[in-house]
């Protein structure tokens, strides 16, 4: 059976993306090289940030094409996270709303990757 090590997000500026994810998830990303960083996201998955103009092999793909789906166990924690992100100035492409799978919102990182949080 396979295991998933990390989700790789192509970014324009590793330092800017590290700052965003450190603020959003209250963590300390690790800079592994000037164009490559990682952060522990869940107990078994890391998010890897790779600077798009330094990919080997190169790729025409740029940021913004990924959505991370993040479940939150209860509504109180969900609301607290939304309020904290709003106070930190994190941009939202969708405010809190009810849907068929519960309440959710969508935040975006500096490269336009979507962070869908739901409860």
Q: Just name the CATH architecture.
A: Roll
Shape: globular
Low-confidence spans: none
β content, as a range? 35-45%
Helix share, percent: 10-25%
Radius of gyration using CA atoms only = 15 Å
Order of helices and strands: EHEEEEHEEE
CATH class category: Alpha Beta
Class computed from helices, strands and strand pairing: alpha/beta
Number of strands: 8
CATH topology: 2,3-Dihydroxybiphenyl 1,2-Dioxygenase, domain 1
Strand order of the largest sheet: 1-4-3-2
CATH homologous superfamily caption: 2,3-Dihydroxybiphenyl 1,2-Dioxygenase, domain 1
Q: Distance between termini? A: 29 Å
How does the major sheet shape up? Answer: 4 strands, mixed
Count of discrete structural domains = 1
**What's the total helix number?**
2
InterPro entries: Glyas_Bleomycin-R_OHBP_Dase (IPR029068), Glyas_Fos-R_dOase_dom (IPR004360), Glyoxalase/dOase/EhpR (IPR026275), VOC_core (IPR037523)
Domain VOC: 3-119
Protein name: Glyoxalase
Task: Describe the protein.
This protein is of the alpha/beta class and 119 residues long. The protein has one domain (6-118): Roll (2,3-Dihydroxybiphenyl 1,2-Dioxygenase, domain 1). The chain is built from two helices and eight strands; from the N terminus they run βαββββαβββ. It has helices at 14-25, 75-87, and strands spanning 6-11, 30-33, 36-42, 45-51, 67-71, 91-99, 102-108, 114-118. The strands form two sheets. Strands 1-4-3-2 form a four-stranded mixed sheet, with helices on one face. Strands 5-8-7-6 form a four-stranded mixed sheet, with helices on one face. The two termini are 29 Å apart.
């Amino acid at each position: 059976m396979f295991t998933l090590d990390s989700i790789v997000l192509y970014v324009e500026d590793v330092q800017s993306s590290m700052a965003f994810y450190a603020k959003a998830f209250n963590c300390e990303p690790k800079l592994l090289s000037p164009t490559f960083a990682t952060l522990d996201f869940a107990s078994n998955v890391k998010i890897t940030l790779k600077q798009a103009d330094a990919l080997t092999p190169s790729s025409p793909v740029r940021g913004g094409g990924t959505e991370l789906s993040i479940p939150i166990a209860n509504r109180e924690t969900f609301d607290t996270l939304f309020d904290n992100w709003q106070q930190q100035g994190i941009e939202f492409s969708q405010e809190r709303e009810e849907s068929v799978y519960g309440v959710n919102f969508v935040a975006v990182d500096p490269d336009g990757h979507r962070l869908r949080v739901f409860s």
